Amino acid sequence: MPTAIPTVTASATPSLTPALMLTATPTPTLTAALTPTVTPTQTQTATPTKTAKLTNTPSPTQTPTPVPSTTPTSLLPTETSTPAYPYGVSHKECKPNCHTTGIRGTVCDVNGSYVPNLFVRVWTDEWCCGWAETNTYAPYEILLGPGPRGGHWYVALYNFDKSTQVSKTITVYTDFEPCEPESGGCQWPIVDFERNTDFVVVQERILPKVGDKCSPEHYLDIQVINARGNLLDGINVQITGPGGETNVVSGENGPGRIMFTMFGSYQAKVEGDESGRQYTSERTRVLDSMNATLEDLIAGGYCKGMSTQECVEQRDLGSGHLCYGHYSYEVVFQRQW
Is residue 299 in a domain? Predict the structure, then answer.
């Protein structure tokens, strides 16, 4: 028979103790402690309220410079996105334990390294919280009490001063029983967080040929938008190509826009913003103003009336054929929160 869930009443003169203590009386007093380094601040006693289980090219001779130019109308994403948090849950499971109940896990960057100086918060509907600070050498761990404890708990990640939630709230469940090894019981939920990529490439396409003549231009038209599709100024974009690395800022050539003259093959990614904040970003594929890929040539209408083989042969002839040296591209970076 499942053990009844104890109820908890607030103590008249609450005090902090190093661990959550559960007694066998009907009205136990429960306090919380954090393992390994942080002592939780609490204003109420923890009250688990529910028992359930966790479910699981050619060398250029000029230096490329950004230039203003009149460009085709951008094809921006039209869907409205819900802003995402910087961190997501990468893994969730639960382990049985007859001796203690708690929550543990990792907080990692996009490379899988531990992220320090963030805080994991655990709370219930009737208990404020316990906190654990992350570090660079071990998973976080929050001890909820001795013995198996059934109930539901909320888990979320916060920034360095606990003022801003940086992940969505996760609900986990623990069991009173079973608790033996390999029993399938759940006393130690594991919640791993991982940094989401701040900016992703939502569009990278060759600009189509207009009419029978090649454009005199050869540029990257880069636009930067937020999660709702609004243009963002002040975002630093790093462009790497034959001239090395060039840093440009969105908004220099219109709202959220960068115009960059190409003399060969390039890649781009977001680096940060004007305040000095750094971002993670996807990098574009190689985009070449001299020799476009076969897929780009076909998509852009540069090989109309030709077979695939004829298109390849014309491209490989180089200068003077197709629109060699005069291919332009549109790139859209979208922030994910």
Answer: yes
pLDDT per position as a tens digit, 96-136:
999 999 999 999 987 788 999 999 999 999 999 999 999 99
DSSP per residue, 155-207? EEEE-TTS-SB-S--EEEEE-SS--STTS---SEEEEEEEEPPSEEEEEEEEP
Domain extent for 133: 87-195
Please state whether the predicted TM-score (pTM) of the whole model is above 0.70: no
Structure tokens at 89: 């849950």
Q: Which value, in Å, is the radius of gyration of the alpha carbons in the chain? A: 28
User: What is the C-alpha separation between 293 and 108, in angstroms, rounded?
Assistant: 37
| Pairing between β-strand 188-195 and β-strand 107-108 as defined by DSSP bridges | parallel
Which position has the higher pLDDT, 150 or 65?
150
Domain-embedded: residue 69: no
Place 64 in a pLDDT band, splitting at 50, 70 and 90.
Answer: very low
